[in-house]
Design brief:
Layout (H helix, E strand, L loop, with lengths): L4 E4 L5 H18 L8 H17 L2 E5 L2 E6 L5 E3 L2 E6 L4 E3 L4 H18 L4 E7 L3 H9 L3 E9 L11 H9 L1 E4 L2 H6 L1 H10 L13 H13 L3 E7 L2 E10 L14 E9 L8 H15 L4 E7 L3 H10 L1 E10 L5
Parallel strand pairs: 5-7, 12-13
Antiparallel strand pairs: 1-2, 2-3, 3-6, 4-5, 7-14, 8-13, 8-14, 9-10, 10-11, 11-12
């Protein structure tokens, strides 16, 4: 193994660190060209995020006086009932070809500090196309928990059914515009929240009807668009789409012309009938008409049914992986 010298990061290293992240971003964009082009605006946004990370501090790796990699874990927070810390997607990078040597070294030093501070749940965002980093993290005991994906705005493949069946499904999709109709979705949204508690996702969300109404109203106020699928008087599915703000998710898409699937759910008895594809097609047509350039979705990897649907229609660009360190150590 090539020898590296590890040291604490300093804010003055942010420019060199950004150079490593910039190269990693460009490699990821070769694998998924739907990532926003690294124009002056996008470069400035990413550079600001790297600068904020370096202000917090982490671990740098050197060889021959050259910065070859860095890893910076953010402040601790509660995640799934445990104290956690995230190394964000812009909080680490290594020189191309050195992932096998460096990722483990950087994480070992970062993990030692985190555990000393009582942080035993470690998360990291990493480019899906960076197989060297993904492999190194797997060997260290990480497993993927969240996937971020993109698709272009071409029409959605609707399956092998006859075209007349596709047309009938598309005609059952309603673009909801009235307040009362938004509220009609609340029972389905509450069922969606309850779904997350089931195996193998095991994510606790508030499934109360009042909470569903509050969340739906927040979507409406934000300008998000609601599409529902009905058969007769029965609502079987919905999809909410809007602008991607790049806040807690889709951070690499902040400030770009990107729309986001904000929420979607189909009742179990209506799955695998092409309903989700019909909703996605109508939502994609709206996104295209608004002048967006791409559509983004984020989902838990353990969501077996939903995850399979999103993988069929989107291409991954980012993974979030998790490792738990025994608290009795």
């Amino acid at each position: 193994m090539t020898r590296f010298h590890l040291s604490p990061t300093e804010p003055s290293l942010a420019a060199e660190g950004f150079g490593l992240l910039r190269d990693a971003y460009l490699r990821a964009r070769v694998a998924n060209p739907l990532l926003p082009a690294l124009d002056a605006d996008q470069e400035a946004r990413l550079q600001r995020r790297v600068e904020r990370a370096f202000a917090y501090g982490g671990i740098a790796a050197w060889r021959g006086g050259s910065l070859r990699g860095f890893m910076i874990a953010g402040p601790s927070f509660e995640f799934r009932g445990l104290v956690a810390s995230l190394v964000p997607e812009f909080g680490h990078a290594v020189a191309a070809g050195e992932e096998a040597d460096l990722v483990g070294l950087l994480y070992a030093a970062s993990a030692e500090q985190l555990v000393r501070e009582g942080v035993h749940l470690h998360l990291i965002g990493h480019f899906a196309a960076d197989l060297g980093t993904t492999s190194a993290l797997f060997e260290l005991g990480f497993g993927a928990v969240v996937r971020e994906q993109l698709r272009d705005l071409s029409d959605v493949a609707l399956g092998d059914e006859p075209r007349v069946a596709h047309r009938a499904q598309l005609e059952r999709v309603e673009h909801v515009r009235h307040l009362d109709s938004w509220r009609d979705v609340a029972p389905l949204a509450a069922a969606h929240a309850a779904f997350y508690r089931e195996s193998p996702v095991f994510v606790r969300k508030d499934a109360a009807l009042d909470e569903a109404l509050v969340e739906l109203d927040a979507h409406r106020v934000d300008g998000d668009q609601l599409f529902v699928y009905r058969e007769g008087d029965e609502m079987l599915a919905y999809l909410i789409v809007g602008r991607c703000a790049g806040g807690s998710e889709g951070r690499l898409l902040e400030g770009t012309s990107t729309a986001q699937v904000r929420s979607a759910f189909t009742v179990p008895v209506a799955r695998r009938r092409g309903i989700g594809a019909a909703l996605l097609q109508q939502a994609t047509a709206w996104v295209r008409a608004q002048g967006f350039e791409r559509l983004f979705v984020e989902h838990e990897t353990a969501n077996l049914c939903g995850g399979a649907f999103w993988r069929r229609h989107f291409a991954p660009y980012l993974l979030f992986s998790l490792r738990y360190v025994d608290r009795t150590l």
